[in-house]
Amino acid sequence: MKSILFVHSSSELYGSDRSLFNIVKNIDKNKYKVYVVLPCPGPLVDEMKKVKGIHVDIFAIAVLRRKNLSLKGSLSYLRDFAKSMRFLKAYIREFEIDIVDTNTAVVFPGAIAAKRLKKKSVWHIREIISSALENKMISFMMDRYADLIIANSKATGDALLVNQDKVRVVYNAVDEKKTSGNVPHELITVGMAGRINRWKGQKLLVDAAAIVHKECPDVIFEIAGETYQGEDQIKADLESYITKKKLENTVRLLGQINDMESFYLSLDVFILPSIQPEPFGLVVIEAMEYKLPVVATNHGGPTEIITDGQDGYLVDYRNAQEMAKRIIELVKNEELRKRMGEFGLKKKRAQFSVSAMVQGIEAVFEEVAN
After folding, report:
1. Is the pLDDT of residue 169 over 70?
2. Which range of residues forms the domain containing residue 281?
């Protein structure tokens, strides 16, 4: 039996967090002892502690953020990095870890500790890094310290400047749900879910909402998600933008949503308006599970999920007019929404099942161990 240590940078329940949870929850506990290190208490910790066979510990492993690129920030990072290395080396020795799985691009200590102790290192990349300099640096670290690299889409893997022979693509997945979408609502509701930041495209959605509102004034838009700690100004800027567009009664900011099932069931159309390439787009397959037609921007992982015109639409990330046009088509045509939703559900269950994801992850662990 192999011991696997998963090192992750968040204790929340956004896309990468939920994907990790599905892996550790469903991995074969007869083949693997599962250990997880998370940075702080949070909903992900709470969910993992409900599952038998998962050993969860909390330690604030050093995470490289943009704030660490200043002199003061870099000194703080180096102190945290040294503490993380000491903790992880002791942890790997104490629990006789065989494989360290680093579950995000910006956490370096796990992979380095694994290599220094001559343990196997798998690095799970879930980001497409837009900065050329950052991509070069992170790719160098992954190439040097990972035995194998798991990418959550072809787009993510192709964006790395690494030896592509190391890359294995394993698509994310979500559980099947007993409940489905297509619940009648008093008002047509269009929604998105994701971290509020500068590339997830909340402002693009607001621009599209302004256009839709002129033709379909009763349509409601909902945005679920929060900013990273310390980035409150980004949310304040979004709120000001909504006010500037005079959409305070049309576009609702819901904040962090823990009951995602209720959120998806409240929607008629789902939007993924990312203005930079989405590494995968876990929310796309979540929406498909609830029979929601999806309108997503035409780059990154969603292009590997959505068949344009069949189970959703792919639109130009620079074109709010095109996004609005597709939303209006769906708003006005209930039969189209239902048809796309049914196609989406079938595709999601056929191609993006949890069992397929876990089998892919286990295959990588078997490969790296031999």
Report:
1. yes
2. 189-351
Strand partners, 4: 34, 99
Residue 178 lies in a domain: no
Please check whether residue 320 is in contact with residue 207, taking contact to mean a CB–CB distance below 8 angstroms: yes
Number of C-beta neighbours around residue 14 at 10 A: 17
Half-sphere exposure of 239 (CA within 13 A, CB side): 10
Is residue 241 domain-resident? yes
Q: Which two tokens stand for residue 228?
A: 């990273």
Rounded mean pLDDT, 55-78: 83
Q: What is the CATH number of the domain that holds 259?
A: 3.40.50.2000
Say if residue 80 is in the same domain as residue 96. yes
- At 243, the amino acid letter reads T
Mean pLDDT, residues 274-291: 94
Q: How many CB atoms lie within 10 A of CB 326?
A: 22
Q: Is 308 helix (H, G, I), strand (E, B) or coil?
A: strand
CA 114/CA 355 separation, integer angstroms: 28
Q: What is the DSSP letter of 228?
A: P
Beta strands in 141-241, from DSSP E residues, in sequence order: 148-151, 167-169, 189-193, 220-224
Using alpha carbons, list the distances in angstroms from residue 281 to 52, 194, 257, 308, 327. Answer: 28, 10, 17, 15, 19
Q: Cα torsion for 303, 305, 309, 315, to the nearest 10°?
A: -30
Residues 328 and 235 in one domain: yes
Report which DSSP code applies to 302.
Answer: G
Read off the pLDDT of residues 135-146 as tens digits, 9 standing for 90 and up.
999 999 999 999
- What does the pLDDT read at residue 219? 98
Distance of alpha carbon 160 from alpha carbon 348, whole angstroms:
26
The maximal CA–CA distance of the chain, rounded, in angstroms, is 63
**What confidence category does residue 261 fall into, taking pLDDT thresholds of 50, 70 and 90?**
very high
Higher pLDDT among residues 236 and 130, named by residue? 236
The values of phi and psi at residue 359, to 5°, are -60, -40
